[in-house]
C-alpha cells in the first residue's frame, strides 16, 4: 500500500464509488464505509470517488471527506469541475462564462479563461448556484447561449437530499436555459459516459470495462452511467434508494446490496473487477 492507502502495484480492477448517499450521509460516513474502502484496496482494486458535487472546489471537498474519517488521496477524487478542466484543456482558446459559486469559478479560472457574459464567451458553464442565482444572473448565462455559446452543465441532476430534504439541483437550472435557448447542454458529470471514461482514465493501467464497477444510490445517474458505458453496476439501499424504488423508467443495476460494506464480499464472490 502507498501512504494514502492505494494499491502499490498495478490494480486488478477499478471501483467508481459515489459519495453522497453511498459513502456518506449528512455530515458523517455510512457506518463501515471506511473499512469497506480499505478492503477494496486490499483486494487490489483502484478506487475512484466520483461525485456530482459542484458546490465546492476539489480541494475543499477533499478536506471535508478527510475530516469525516475517509482516507483518500487527491488523485482518487473526481468531480465535474475536474472533468470541466479536462474538457477545456482539449479546447484551447475557449472563453468561458461561469454561473456557479465562487469556489467552483475560481478552480476553473486556474486553468481556463473565465470571462464575463458580455465578453463574447464561447462556452457557458453552469454549476451549483445556491446563494447566487438571480433572474439577472440567469439571463446573463442565457443570452450568450442564445447567441451561439455552448451550454455546459457540470452535472444534470434534478434534485438531491440536503439535510434529509429534497433540494433543486444544477440540472433544473440548466433546464431553464435549455428550454429558453432551445439547445441541449453538454453534461460533464454523471450520468455522462464521458465522465466515467475521464475518471477511469486516471487509473494506470486503465482497466477494461469488465473489470470496472460503478457503485451508487441513484439509478438515474450512477446506474444509468454504468449501464451506458457497459460496466458492472451496484445499487446500494441507502441515500436515494427508497425514493426511486418502484420507478420503472429508471435502469436496474446488476446487483443490489444493503450498503457499501457489502461491496468487498460481492467483488470477491463475482471474481471480476
TrEMBL record:
Keywords, in A-Z order: Hydrolase
Keyword Ribosomal protein: no
Origin: domain of life: Bacteria
One Gene Ontology molecular-function label: phosphatase activity
Pfam family, one: Hydrolase_like
One of the record's GO cellular component terms: cytoplasm
PANTHER family, per the entry: 4-NITROPHENYLPHOSPHATASE-RELATED (PTHR19288), HALOACID DEHALOGENASE-LIKE HYDROLASE DOMAIN-CONTAINING PROTEIN 2 (PTHR19288:SF46)
Name of the protein in question: Haloacid dehalogenase domain protein hydrolase
Amino acid at each position: 500500500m502507498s501512504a494514502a492507502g492505494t494499491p502499490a502495484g498495478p490494480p486488478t480492477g477499478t471501483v467508481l464509488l459515489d459519495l453522497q448517499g453511498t459513502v456518506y450521509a449528512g455530515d458523517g460516513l455510512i457506518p463501515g464505509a471506511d473499512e469497506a474502502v480499505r478492503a477494496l484496496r486490499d483486494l487490489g482494486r483502484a478506487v475512484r470517488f466520483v461525485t456530482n458535487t459542484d458546490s465546492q472546489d476539489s480541494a475543499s471537498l477533499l478536506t471535508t471527506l478527510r475530516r469525516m474519517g475517509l482516507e483518500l488521496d487527491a488523485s482518487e477524487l473526481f468531480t465535474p469541475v475536474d472533468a470541466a478542466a479536462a474538457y477545456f484543456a482539449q479546447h484551447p482558446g475557449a472563453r468561458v462564462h461561469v454561473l456557479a459559486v465562487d469556489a467552483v469559478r475560481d478552480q476553473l479560472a486556474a486553468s481556463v479563461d473565465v470571462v464575463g457574459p458580455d465578453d463574447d464567451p464561447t462556452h457557458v458553464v453552469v454549476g451549483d448556484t445556491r446563494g447566487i442565482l438571480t433572474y439577472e444572473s440567469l439571463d446573463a448565462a442565457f443570452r450568450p447561449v442564445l447567441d451561439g455559446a455552448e451550454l455546459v452543465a457540470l452535472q444534470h441532476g434534478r434534485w438531491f437530499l440536503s439535510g434529509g430534504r429534497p433540494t433543486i439541483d444544477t440540472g433544473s437550472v440548466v433546464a431553464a436555459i435549455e428550454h429558453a435557448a432551445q439547445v441541449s447542454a453538454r453534461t460533464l458529470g454523471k450520468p455522462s459516459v464521458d465522465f466515467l471514461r475521464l475518471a477511469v482514465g486516471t487509473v494506470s493501467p486503465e482497466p477494461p470495462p469488465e473489470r470496472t464497477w460503478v457503485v451508487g444510490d441513484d439509478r438515474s445517474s450512477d446506474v444509468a452511467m454504468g449501464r451506458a458505458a457497459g460496466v458492472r453496476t451496484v445499487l446500494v439501499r441507502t441515500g436515494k434508494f427508497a425514493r426511486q424504488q418502484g420507478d420503472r423508467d429508471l435502469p436496474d443495476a446488476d446487483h443490489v446490496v444493503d450498503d457499501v460494506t457489502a461491496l468487498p464480499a460481492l467483488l470477491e464472490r463475482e471474481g471480476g473487477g
